[in-house]
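JOB MANIFEST
job_type = single_chain_structure
chain_count = 1
residues = 389
[input]
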Amino acid sequence: MLSRSHSSRKLLPFIFNKLKVNPNEPFTPPVQALFSTHIVGEKPILVRDFIHSALYDPNHGYFSQRSGSVGVLERSIKFNQLEGRKAYLKHLDKIYKQSGIAWFTPVELFKPWYAHGIAEAIMRTANLSVPLKIYEIGGGSGTCARGIMDYIMLNAPPRVYNSMTYTSVEICPALAEIQKQTVGEVRSHQSKFKVECRDATDRSGWGHVEQQPCWVIMLEVLARVAEMEIALCNLQLVLDNLPHDLIYSENQVSPWMEVWVEKQLDGEGLSELYRPLQDSLIKCCVEILELDKNSTRQTSAVSKTWSKLFPKPRRCWLPTGCMKLLEVLHAALPKMSLIASDFSYLPDVKIHGERAPLVSTKKDGHSSDYSNYLEAKVPYFCFLFNFFW
């Protein structure tokens, strides 16, 4: 059949026990990208594969096209010289306009204090009788790694720093090189730090199961320009940049269908293709979020009639990429301690649907948001938020 167009204690055990996917399966879309219409080949692809290509395609993805996608400040901001929120936003707006950088992460904006706070939290809770092992996924410019290692070097017992290892797992080759340069500025860090340029959602890249305790950091936070009229939008560059899926229902009581993207017959545009739920990640996410509870209950005749007379189509975005990553990390690093942060809210989103993304591009220092994710030209950036139970 084809047609066209809530607590954390509950969530994680459910994923790890119920998710029926192969963690060894690479999360690699078989497509090429130039503009959105070139992302899709002859066969339809799931929305998550479409987003993955738009962000990470080695030739035309956002992070490959924009070598300055993540900025590095020459010096730390002197917050004691700023008189409150308005002064900070004005200073932040000035930084963006002068630099031409797509964004600076708060690890960068609040350096070194942001990374130092993470390092202090690790030192207070880690078992320091065994070598400290830290993984960071999506390390941006390397400022977080540099700050954490600096803090441990200066404040931990020498044996802790001397025996520690810090591994950055980075999918973007350009950012991987920047991280090496940033951390390598301190010579003693070089032997303890390495970058593995690979997809963290690919189980095979993690090798054998790590039986020792370790820390996993998935923490980068984005500060948007002052025009958004909010001081900070918390963004974790891993979770929100992981591909999401989209499901659709034609009215209030019809079953959910998974959304695929296909080329239009004239080859000039893209359209959505709706199929019954088959993908294991999508089905598991729907079950976790209890989105199928209406279809499992006996729908009243009144509801059915009302939905036919006044149909209200439903669209919902699902964090299937995040689910895949959590499953892989649980399988590869069963004794990990996880530090993560993400968007829980996005302002002024133009795209329809529950948990809809903010699809944006930036030119000449100004951001422009799209109302349809299929119309955006690559490279563009896609902000997707996640719920924290």
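[summary]
The CA atoms of residues 65 and 379 lie 7 Å apart.
Confidence is low (pLDDT under 50) at residues 1-35, 221-240, 378-389.
exit_status = 0
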